[in-house]
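A favour between colleagues. Tell me how you read the following sequence-structure pair.

===
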Amino acid sequence: MAGAAPAAGPNLAVLDALDSARTQMYHMKAIVIAGMGFFTDAYDLFCISTVSKLLGRLYYPTDNMNYNDLKESKPGTLPVSINNMVIGVALVGTLMGQLVFGYFGDKLGRKRVYGITLVLMAACAIASGLSFGSSPRAVIGTLCFFRFWLGFGIGGDYPLSATIMSEYSNKKTRGAFIAAVFAMQGVGIIFAGLVSMIVSGIFLHYNPAPTFNEAIQNSANHDPRPASQAPGADYMWRIVLMIGAFPALATFYWRMKMPETARYTALIEGNAKQAASDMEKVMDVEIQAEQEKLARYKAANDYPLWSAEFARRHGMHLIGTATTWFLLDIAFYSQNLTQKDIFPAMKLTSAASDVNALTEVFQISKAMFLVALLGTFPGYWVTVALIDRMGRYMIQLLGFFMMSVFMLIMGVMYENLKEHNHALFALFYALTFFFANFGPNSTTFVLPAELFPTRVRSTCHAISAASGKAGAIVAAYGVQSLTLKGEAKDNKKALIILSVTNMLGFFFTFLVPETMGRSLEEISGEDNNAGTGPAGVPAGPGMGVSDVSRDKIPVSSTEWQSSMHA
């Protein structure tokens, strides 16, 4: 076992060892363990999109029948209030779970709370598929109940996964590691489409049925239910939802075996010896405990979240991370409003009345799979490749700007693109998704995990993430309501509004400093507060013009970048 001297600077030896560590197996294991949580999160949140119209055909088959003009019927369309509940309830649960688990992640420990979120996700994914009752009200009611608690568990995974990965990482590749965890969301979306496509294809093979139009024409009373393919279709959506439990359960053992992060053990629990011991086991180096130095370190950074001191040091950063995530998620969760035009234009889906229930699920799942694979997935991994070269700040600015441009073009040229330029419409749509993920959808997850002091890092990430989910709820209930009728003028208006929203995100990004290449303690100012000299430690190369008189408040992006090139 190699020896390690005490840290020469203000930071603790165990933290310096983490910051300078080469990429090792424990980094990869942490990415997989945290990443599988995000895989499960994405699968559970997005698989409902593939089966929501099936729920409408099964439980509300006649609600959108137009008996005066059968061609105007809209099979599979859930009543507005039911649709909002089915789609939105998990988002509300996610928002609440982020705040609750984020807070307890700082109070009880990252690892201790981490296991609870996983068990809750797995249990509620299975329970969602077992939604019971003999009436539509009972089935949908129990489904919404369990999906709320599913979202609650998913919400906890956001701040905990990001915080754990940031505190395990070295400073050279920390951005890529955190972004890689988040990139598993893209894999989860792909598998949500793929699994739905496979399961619906199997049930479709063994449950042939007429199309909606054929069913109402062959029935004396125009009954559409033969096209809904019950009970096979009823089993199908339940199986898809329950499959979401298994990736989470597969990593439960390894999640419980992970040691608590050294930063939590040392800086919050105050146990330098245990922190050094835990990291010695995973890094195979000898680390000095430095208990006396830790006591000075903790005393110098002992100010709470809701204090004037936190507001002075980090208030603008929290406003920046919260507003940019809020604005991003309004646009990101609204992007599916153009799917009803994009998918038919690309010949991926047919009119609802021309297919039966399981064929519709198969087509929607295939379209979702292809869009995720070709548009969504690449952006995540381009971010992983470039985030520690370009920086979080530039990627976020570029992403917001390009999303704004493409949504403005789609809004202004909506009718022309829809009717005459299908390929160009699909290209703009895919590029919007690409720059969302090679852009703010990734960086808004990474930045809150790096900017804030250890003792409030999970809580601040939770506040930022919950702000994002508030934006998603605005998209689900506000923007979607605006475009519910599918009229061109409403879709144009929505896309132009979303373009403006993205541009606001571009400008709010200026509140967020660059974090690339610096230790977490340097970014948050924690190590400078605990300086060994009478006036603290002089600013390092990452602090730029931040001096002792400013108490090492993290500098803005432009200041930091200027200092790096000075």
User: Anything to note?
Assistant: Residues 1-8, 531-566 have pLDDT under 50 and may be disordered.
